[in-house]
Amino acid sequence: MGDTFDVTKFKSKTAKQSSQYGRQLNRLKSAGKGTKQIAQAVDSAVANLQAGSRSFVIYGEPQSGKTEMMICLTARLVDSGYKFVLHLLNDSVDLLGQNLTRFKSSGLSPGARNFSEIIDPVVKIKGQTHVVFCKKNARDLQNLIDKVGNLSGIVVIDDEADYASPNSKVNKGGRTPINELIQELLGTTGVYIGVTATPARLDLNNTFNNDNEAWVDFPPHGKYTGQDVFFPLAGPVQYRRELLSDQGSDPKHARAALLRFLATVAHLNLHVHPHVEKNYSFLVHTSGKKADHKSDWSTMYKALNALTDKDSKDFDKYVKQLWEIARELYPDFDPDEIAGFVVENVGRNAIVVLNSERDWKDNSSAATSPTSLFTIIIGGNIVSRGVTLDNLISMFFTRDVKHKIQQDTYIQRARMFGSRGDYLSYFELTMPSALYVDWHRCFVFHRLSLTAIRKKLGSPVWIGDNRIAVASSPSIDRSTVDLNRGEMSFPLFPYVQELSTIPKLSISNAEKMNKLVKRIGEPGFPQFLRDFIASTTNADVAVAVHSPTDIANYNDADTVEISRKKGFFGNSQKDAANSTTAVHHLKVFFNSKTGKARLFYKFEGSIQFIKNTK
Question: Which of 145, 245, 261, 570 is most enclosed, with most CB atoms within 10 A?
Fold first, then answer.
């Protein structure tokens, strides 16, 4: 206790900001959450900044905990002395409110604020530390620019960075409004950090000249269930998968999925956690047409209404179907008990229809954290990006897609991804078989590209085909992107003469590939490529191992790095005898003067390999 006032004691307390990052990690640990993956991503991002990088991407799986990572990254930036950290959020749903609430509850200092809170002239910007949130909305961004002016050293953390931020006028010599306003905020001294699960568009668009060699991987946490679970390369799935033979528009499919959802909720509350009642949700993902939303609502409403009215003409039929479903799904339990629980409690339902921004603002909390025992969410694009649905145990896709699907759109629609491990075996995904096949292939391509990035195998190569577009065509910068490369290559390795004999051996194609693997090894012939080949085709008939080619005297190639802008692997480079049935082509190109070699891979058919060659 002091007898005299000493202001220096208090000045020293206001300066204690260096522990923000440590406090955030401790907060997560105290809540039982892992921090290893977060620390890995934050450390890599800070290392980029220290190395002088001013534009890069942090990529991670959909719903893998990126918000907590961004909170920790912001804390680390504040500790490091950055004065203005701006978070940009998708304007298509009310993510700003959700994320702002999570930032404020984290205890971060200074507290995060909506941009509208700093617009007043009395709020001082220069010399103060601010964490600010703003939607990717032209009017909001312009108002923010009017306030901060040409403030130097702004750090922009762009959530869902592949949405709205890329410049879709890149091939027309202009800029889209959002892209231009973000560029104005960055000025010549700002730092851009894009955060997304689908970074291809940012790479192929050269958005804010991001450096793909400085990209940061944010690996998912240990309890995460993502593409490896829901779209495995091989083996049985760990959840319930119902594939429909037609387009899924017949109401009987949606009704059956609803009854399975009701039976599962009953079973979970009766037998899995009988002492703690939990509410669960069922997402009916339909098209973007409001008429389809109305049709799906009608199907759900009529079925639920019939189950609540014992005098309904459909009561007996639906209860019998429910009873049969309960007996089939849970044969070790009494179907009378499960069906009885549903009939007694089915009135505790909520149908949340999300047609528009207004619907989302009015009903988002009921959709993201179900407050009714049986919560049914009906929506299309409004729930396709950035929305985390707690206690989601069923998803139903009502209609197949007839047109070409865009990879980033469908990856973002995987709302079943997340921490589903506690009830994964009860989770159900229902959709047309053709849509599942397209979606599965979409993730196979995505996995192959991201694995190559994670292994630091050079600039990303993005993969699409006649059903899957890598990114929106207007966003692809055609001045630097090679759309017809058609091949992937891997790290250099020492060339040995044995490689020239393997293609000539009288053994199966699969055995030739195995010998190539043993001779080259990792990373020259990476495991993910072998897995991809094995998962998609029969290696005996679909793989061709071609004779090596010496490129030492090529005049139009980098003979040291063994690279060539237009690629090496044309039809003239294939051995005719090995190409009869092959779709996967493997060939070593080497430099006899340096003794170095590189493996090249090419897929025969409609698949397109797209690479930024800047």
Answer: 261
